[in-house]
TrEMBL record:
SMART domains: AAA (SM00382). GO terms for molecular function: ATP binding; ATP hydrolysis activity; branched-chain amino acid transmembrane transporter activity. This is ABC transporter ATP-binding protein. Coiled coil: none annotated. Signal peptide: none annotated. Residues 2-238 form the ABC transporter domain.
Length: 239
């Protein structure tokens, strides 16, 4: 479904992505792990059209989408959940979902928008309960669920997730990851998941890539990465 071939990207003169190649097949959960500053967020931003790519190809459904505008990519079926839970805090849960679904509304009208919101409430019942509450007053886990729901409003086929576990308690992390697994199982969603919480990410992923200073240094099945001595030492905090 998605294939990156020899991607290079830089901030000014600083090269951040160096010859990165990876692929995500339809229906897979693939995780990208690595230390702070390895370039994981930059890679997601490159795929979703927010970061210029200087060299290489990004193929989605057979078409080269490198340097395509984010809004157009949403129409193609790629959507990135906002980083660091960038929800609209002074607006209600309902208003946030309406904003997330602006494209649905523009393309298909208000009735479809209402239907999509109803589907999100079925998927995240806590958001239905909190629909009139200001988003800024939600718990961290609820804010993360809202961010994911806002992204899903556009019915992507490929969901890009940037550190959904950031700042959340272990129990909530487990809940969020269960939701991601369920979305794949029930909706056939394909997911590229960037995580510093390598342990949790590898437990739900099919395959994983390890990134270090802008390069992919290891790629393997997720269960093999969990047993890989180098990965265990550097990213799982175990010998
Ligand atoms: P983290 O998990 O901390 O977000 P990351 O693996 O996602 O790390 P990136 O955020 O992609 O890493 O950053 C990769 C490198 O690019 C870092 O050295 C960072 O300092 C640099 N960088 C990121 N954003 C910018 C920017 N806007 N301008 C210049 N350099 C940047």
């Amino acid at each position: 479904m998605l294939r990156l071939v020899n991607i290079h990207s830089a901030y000014g003169l600083v090269r951040v992505l160096k010859n990165v190649s990876l692929h995500v097949d339809g229906g897979e959960i693939v995780t990208l792990i690595g230390a702070n500053g390895a370039g994981k967020t930059t890679l997601l931003r490159a795929i979703s059209g927010l970061q210029p790519v200087q060299e290489g190809r990004i193929i989605f459904d057979g078409r080269d989408i490198a340097n395509t505008r984010a809004e157009k990519l949403v129409r193609f079926g790629i959507a990135q959940a906002p980083e660091g839970r960038q929800i609209f805090r002074p607006m209600t849960v309902m208003e946030n979902l309406e904003l997330g679904g602006y494209l649905v509304c523009r393309l298909h009208g208000r009735k479809q928008l209402r239907r999509a919101i109803g589907e999100m409430f079925d998927m995240f019942p806590i958001l239905r309960e909190r629909q009139d509450q200001f988003a800024g007053t939600l718990s961290g886990g609820e804010q993360q669920m809202l961010a994911i729901a806002m992204t899903l409003m556009n019915k992507p086929r490929l969901l890009l997730l940037d550190e959904p576990s950031m700042g959340l308690a272990p129990l909530i992390v487990r809940e969020i990851f269960e939701i991601i697994s369920r979305l794949r199982k029930d909706e056939g969603l394909t997911v590229l998941l960037v995580e510093q919480n390598a342990n949790a990410a590898l437990r739900i992923a099919d395959r994983g890539y390890v990134m270090e200073t802008g390069k992919i240094i290891i790629q393997d099945r997720a269960d093999a990465l969990l047993e890989n001595p180098e990965v265990r030492r550097a990213y799982l905090g175990r010998d």
